[in-house]
Specification:
Number of strands: 17
Strand order of the largest sheet: 12-11-7-10-9-8-17
Number of domains: 2
CATH architecture of the largest domain: 2-Layer Sandwich
CATH superfamily of the largest domain: Dihydrodipicolinate Reductase, domain 2
Number of helices: 11
CATH topology of the largest domain: Dihydrodipicolinate Reductase, domain 2
Strand content: 25-35%
Order of helices and strands: EHEHEHEHEHEHEHHEHEEEEEEEEHHE
Bound molecules: nicotinamide-adenine-dinucleotide
Helix content: 25-40%
Radius of gyration: 20 Å
Structural class: alpha/beta
CATH class of the largest domain: Alpha Beta
Length: 337
């Protein structure tokens, strides 16, 4: 059995719990959250014996093999450093960090402690990503040339779901970390030059000091160009909180992905929604991309393998996303070392 702990049991932390609980080789031994009420509620709901308001105490008292770090975007560093020091394997949520300095320190700490550090780039386990990756590897499409990736949310996300900390992250970290990783994963290459723009109007007017949208062009050292777009102010009347599209252009082909087309359309007397099917509860069992990413992490721990989405991948994505923020703030292109 692999004994697991989860630090941060908000929305995504509970998804980690559900996915771990579905694996027979995993025992979820403990959880940690600074919110005492949530700690109690979630602990009761998932029958977790160990509950801590201080993750350091959890790491000291429990004999854990692995820990998920699922705290808000800017708060991954300290728990990851503490896990490395306690010599437990780490699954850290994306983005690895919101500064390059934090990400570098985290990768260094995990490497020198000899523990695995996987970043939860769960999108790699979406069925359409896996099929595209295989088509590229099989040579069906030729050489990659250009990628357009849109990943946006309705305004509910920064004003409701993430109200407590939306102003402490930015779209490049919250959303583009996924799309930048998707393009790196499919096309390879290292970002060398970034030009981006952002505007602050709607959210700033509501007292949430983070830009409404970013549009970024990224040049990679293998010649490919990525065009990334993320927006946080789409109206709540949209039938899904996520708007995700990709256009991939190759020398001998093209792949178009519209995430909305993978969903079901549900109309009731009071609403019209298109609930996602890429990650779903199938008769009480979590199935889909997040469950697969977590299963991959557990398999890497059990079989002592290097995770596909490593700390180094996470660091490279943070470098690109930090450059997107810097370019938009400075109003000029940013070169990456
Ligand atoms: N991979 C994905 O597809 C995916 C999806 C959603 C969220 N995420 C990531 O997961 C992370 C968490 O997002 P969320 O939506 O669950 O946020 P959330 O606000 O719902 O939950 C965060 C939890 O962390 C707790 N917390 C804060 N500081 C803490 C500390 N020092 N020690 C212990 N607990 C602490 C909070 O009390 C809260 O319960 C973010 O980094 C986010 O980007 C990833």
């Amino acid at each position: 059995m692999i004994r697991v702990g989860v630090i941060g049991v908000g929305l995504q932390g509970q998804t980690h719990l559900k996915c771990y609980k579905a694996l027979s080789e995993v025992e979820v031994a403990a959880i940690a959250d600074v919110n005492e009420e949530r700690l109690r509620e979630v602990g009761d709901r998932y029958c977790i014996p160990g509950r801590y308001t201080d993750y350091r105490e959890m790491l000291e008292k429990e004999r854990l093999d692995a820990v998920s770090v699922v705290t808000p975007d800017p708060l991954h560093r300290d728990p990851v450093m503490a896990c490395a020091q306690a010599k437990v394997h780490i699954l850290c949520e994306k983005p690895l960090a919101t500064t390059v300095e934090d990400a570098e320190a985290m990768v260094r700490a995990a490497r020198s402690a000899g523990v695995k550090l996987m970043v939860n780039f769960s999108n790699r386990w979406m069925s359409y990503m896996a099929m595209t990756k295989k088509a590229i590897e099989d040579g069906e499409l030729g050489e990659p040339l250009y990628a357009y990736a849109r990943l946006s949310n309705t305004i509910y996300v920064p004003t409701g779901m993430l109200k407590a900390w939306a102003s402490r992250t930015k779209l490049p970290f919250w959303l583009m970390s996924h799309t930048v990783d998707r393009v790196r994963w499919l096309f390879g290459g290292k970002a060398v030059r970034v030009y981006s723009v952002a505007r602050s109007k709607v959210l700033k007017g509501m007292g949430i000091d983070t830009p409404d949208f970013y549009a970024a062009l990224v040049e990679f050292d293998n010649g490919i160009v990525g065009n990334f777009e993320s927006c946080w102010v789409l109206p709540d009347t949209r039938p899904s909180i996520v708007d995700s599209k990709m256009e991939l252009v190759f020398t001998k082909g093209n792949v178009s992905i519209d995430a909305q087309q993978t969903m079901i359309q549900k109309a009731t007397e009071s609403s019209y929604t298109v609930p996602g099917t890429l990650f779903a509860d199938i008769y009480g069992r979590p199935v889909g991309f997040v469950a697969e990413a977590i299963r991959h992490f557990v398999e890497c721990v059990r079989e002592d393998k290097e995770p596909w989405a490593s700390g180094e991948d996470g660091l490279e994505v943070v470098r690109t996303c930090a450059a997107i923020v810097e370019s938009a703030e400075a109003g000029r292109p940013v070169e990456l070392p």
